[in-house]
């Protein structure tokens, strides 16, 4: 199998009439990486994938695969293989014919095709199922056949357009692991499109978070979660509590924000915005539900929030406590289930604390809509 | 067992009164409007053409003579064949096949274009524009074509104006008008079944094939045509059956020397007042076209059930 080939998008802008689907995207994907585009539906991530696969040409900018400019090269001539959201298996062809379709196109003999298809079927643990029709397979099996079909042509880059979205939760989680394993085994570059942050975080080496045609942040899953660079990323990836206010003081990479509801709070300035944030600016501070805990009585008021409990939900592995928050939004605190009966009572006034290193502040901006 | 279930469900869903009424109406249609008339034609075809006084008398017995007439003509010794009628029969069948094939080739690209540019208002307008000529009576349409193809018709005028020909071409005598008329008469019956199946084809399948390097020819051969096969066959069946049984177009657009088999049937019924002979000819045409359709379906591995889809 071919080893990973780098994919670079240089200043890509894609317009459909008056509508700009992707604006000035710059992405450089290392060869052999599992790279995800994460964003809500309609953010332009599928459009980017179509530009890489060759189904559409960018209005501006260049797509480079392995350093070669792909301008004017059709999808059938690019070293990419695309897995569609609905898989697009050919329903009238047997499984093995589906898998070896790219070889059929290239004119390989039936015996060669069958041999290769059987090898791939073994790889996806579907040995002996080659003579079935796709309709006779389960959802997860179809998924694997689609992967095998895409890998059959020995592509340098595999493009996946939300291929797991049709599966149920258990299977989806299982397929995440499996996809990652397959990627490691074949060693080629995977570009994955998803609106599911769990998928993006678990599988990817790097993630690009997109909003309305613009890439907000490209980083490892870990950094995206811990150091979001914009309010959109902070609120879209995982759950987050937002506190709005004005910057009161800055020292180094820490800032004190006078919040609208909880007084002065101390936090880190998110790395990407250090230097951009000035005293007096409108700011947003984010604290993850799991970074909040019940405060001891002598807690530092700069990292303490007091609020009334609205509701408490038992989630099995944790309790979610919802408290009255800023501007009609609730503050959520997540407390691991260690055998407690409950955490709080409705209407109780609770004090919560956090570590300043677990809270990030950035210039105010647009949040992800829920 | 299964049939019983279907019926009990049917009554449960529609109520006893409505259910009985629906079944009654369908049965009436099937029995009185389709089966009985055909059976009576079948019965006619095996009887002698007797004067009214002798009908039901001792001479009114079953015979194969009407069928023998198609093969041997009026020669009762069976030495010579009825080459005139047989030629007309074979020519009708072959011409109907050619019309069908021509329609398949004409409609496939159009159906593909219409079916794959889903939902656009322009396409819906095109479909309506295709239907509008069919609001006009079939005979009027045939006469309109006759005028277009005539010596001083639009087509000849245009060809002469462009100096492509110096003399008007006799489209009628050369049967070009006939084939054009037949092709045009039932073309929508080919287009719509094809359009329906192609519209139901998932576009991603085409893109997936293209992504894997398939050429357009390969995509159509392996993806689109296999998917569209039931629609193509159902359209072809209708066009073939109706072309072979057409009367208006051959009557109006046919050249003086070329008869369509249905015209022979018509002559037996109407001019010779020999219904028995006409019924035999009609039955032969019906049986032959059914056999041809079933054979073609067998060759292309299409089931009756697929066509209904």
Would you mind describing this structure in some detail?
The complex is a heterodimer of chains A (370) and B (309). By secondary structure, chain A is an alpha+beta fold. Chain A contains 9 helices and 20 strands. In chain A, helix 4 crosses helix 5. Chain A is globular and about 80 Å long. The model of chain A has no long low-confidence stretch (mean pLDDT 89). Chain B is built from 15 helices and no strands. Chain B is mainly alpha-helical. The longest helix of chain B is centred in the N-terminal third of the chain and has 34 residues, at 83-116. Chain B has helices at residues 2-14, 16-45, 65-72, 83-116, 121-131, 138-149, 154-161, 176-185, 187-199, 203-211, 216-244, 248-253, 261-270, 275-299, 304-308. At the A-B interface, strand 6 and helix 3 of A face helix 10 and helix 11 of B.
CATH architecture of the largest domain in chain B: Orthogonal Bundle
The strands making up the biggest β-sheet of chain A line up spatially as 6-7-8-3-9-10
Low-confidence stretches of chain A: none
Termini separation of chain A comes to 42 Å
The greatest inter-chain interface is formed by:
A-B, 24 and 17 residues
End-to-end C-alpha gap of chain B: 24 Å
CATH topology of the largest domain in chain A: Rossmann fold
Sequence stretches where pLDDT stays below 50 over 5 or more residues of chain B: none
Q: Layout of helices and strands, plus pairs?
A:
The complex is a heterodimer of chains A (370) and B (309).
Chain A lengths: L6 E10 L2 E11 L4 E5 L6 H9 L6 E6 L2 E2 L10 E4 L11 H5 L1 H6 L3 H14 L15 H14 L4 E5 L7 H18 L2 E6 L2 H7 L2 E6 L2 E6 L1 H6 L4 H6 L4 E11 L2 E6 L3 E7 L12 E6 L5 E2 L9 E11 L3 E7 L5 E7 L12 E5 L5 E5 L7
Parallel strand pairs in A: 3-8, 3-9, 6-7, 7-8, 13-20
Antiparallel strand pairs in A: 1-2, 1-4, 4-5, 9-10, 11-12, 11-14, 12-13, 14-20, 15-19, 16-17, 16-19, 17-18
Helix pairs in contact in A: 4-5
Chain B lengths: L1 H13 L1 H30 L19 H8 L10 H34 L4 H11 L6 H12 L4 H8 L14 H10 L1 H13 L3 H9 L4 H29 L3 H6 L7 H10 L4 H25 L4 H5 L1
Helix pairs in contact in B: 1-2, 2-14, 3-14, 4-8, 4-9, 4-11, 6-8, 9-11, 10-11, 11-14, 13-14
């Amino acid at each position: 199998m071919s080893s990973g080939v780098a994919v670079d998008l240089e200043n890509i802008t894609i317009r459909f009439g008056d509508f700009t689907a992707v604006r000035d995207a710059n992405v450089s994907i290392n060869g052999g990486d599992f790279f995800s585009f994460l964003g809500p539906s309609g953010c332009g991530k599928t459009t980017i994938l179509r530009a890489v696969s060759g189904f559409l040409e960018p209005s501006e900018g260049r797509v480079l695969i392995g350093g070669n400019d792909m301008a004017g090269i059709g999808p059938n001539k690019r070293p990419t293989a695309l897995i569609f959201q609905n898989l697009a298996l050919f329903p009238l062809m047997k499984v093995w014919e589906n898998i070896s379709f790219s070889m059929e196109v290239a004119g390989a003999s039936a015996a060669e095709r069958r041999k290769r298809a059987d090898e791939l079927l073994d790889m996806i643990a579907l040995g002996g199922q080659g003579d079935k029709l796709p309709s006779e397979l389960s959802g997860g099996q179809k998924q694997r056949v689609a992967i095998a079909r895409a890998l059959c042509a020995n592509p340098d880059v595999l493009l996946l357009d939300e291929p797991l979205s049709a599966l149920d939760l258990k299977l989806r989680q299982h397929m995440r692991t499996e996809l990652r394993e397959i990627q490691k085994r074949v060693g080629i570059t995977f570009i994955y499109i998803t609106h599911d942050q769990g998928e993006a975080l678990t599988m990817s080496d790097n993630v690009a978070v997109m909003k309305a045609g613009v890439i907000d942040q490209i980083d490892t899953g870990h950094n995206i979660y811990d150091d979001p660079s914009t309010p959109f990323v902070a609120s879209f990836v995982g759950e987050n509590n937002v506190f709005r206010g004005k910057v009161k003081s800055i020292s180094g990479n820490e800032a004190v924000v006078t919040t609208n509801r909880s007084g002065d709070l101390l936090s880190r300035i998110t790395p990407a915005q250090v230097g951009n944030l000035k005293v007096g600016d409108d700011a947003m501070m984010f604290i993850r539900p799991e970074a909040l805990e019940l405060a001891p009585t002598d807690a530092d008021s700069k990292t303490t929030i007091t609020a009334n409990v609205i509701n408490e939900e038992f989630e099995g592995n944790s309790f979610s406590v919802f408290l009255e928050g800023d501007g009609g939004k609730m503050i959520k605190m997540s407390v691991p289930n260690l055998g407690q009966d409950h955490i709080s009572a409705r209407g109780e006034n609770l004090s919560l604390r956090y570590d300043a290193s677990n809270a990030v502040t950035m210039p105010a901006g647009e949040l992800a809509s829920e | 067992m299964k049939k019983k279930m279907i019926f009990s469900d049917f009554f449960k869903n529609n109520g006893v009164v409505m259910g009985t009424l629906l079944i009654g109406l369908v049965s009436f249609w099937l029995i009185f409007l389709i089966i009985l008339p055909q059976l009576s034609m079948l019965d006619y075809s095996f009887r002698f053409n007797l004067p009214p006084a002798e009908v039901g008398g001792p001479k009114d017995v079953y015979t194969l003579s009407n069928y023998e007439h198609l093969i041997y003509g009026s020669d009762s010794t069976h030495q010579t064949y009825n080459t005139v009628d047989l030629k007309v029969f074979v020519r009708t069948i072959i011409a109907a096949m050619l019309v069908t094939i021509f329609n398949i080739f004409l409609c496939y690209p159009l159906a593909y274009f219409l079916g794959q540019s889903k939902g656009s208002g322009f396409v819906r307008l095109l479909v309506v524009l295709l239907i509008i000529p069919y609001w006009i009576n079939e005979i009027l349409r045939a006469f309109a074509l006759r005028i277009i193809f005539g010596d001083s018709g639009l087509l000849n005028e245009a060809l002469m104006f462009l100096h492509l020909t110096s003399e008007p071409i006799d489209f009628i005598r050369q049967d070009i008008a006939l084939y054009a008329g037949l092709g045009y008469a039932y073309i929508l019956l080919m287009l719509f079944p094809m359009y329906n199946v192609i519209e139901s084809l998932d576009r991603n399948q085409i893109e997936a094939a293209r992504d894997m390097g398939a050429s357009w020819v390969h995509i159509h051969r392996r993806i689109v045509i296999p998917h569209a096969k039931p629609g193509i066959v159902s359209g072809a069946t209708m066009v073939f059956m109706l072309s072979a049984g057409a009367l208006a177009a051959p009557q109006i657009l046919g050249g003086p020397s070329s008869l369509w088999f249905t015209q022979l049937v018509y002559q037996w019924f109407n001019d010779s007042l020999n219904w028995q002979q006409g019924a035999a000819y009609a039955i032969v045409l019906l049986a032959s076209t059914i056999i041809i359709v079933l054979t073609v379906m067998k060759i292309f591995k299409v089931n009756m059930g697929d066509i209904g889809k």
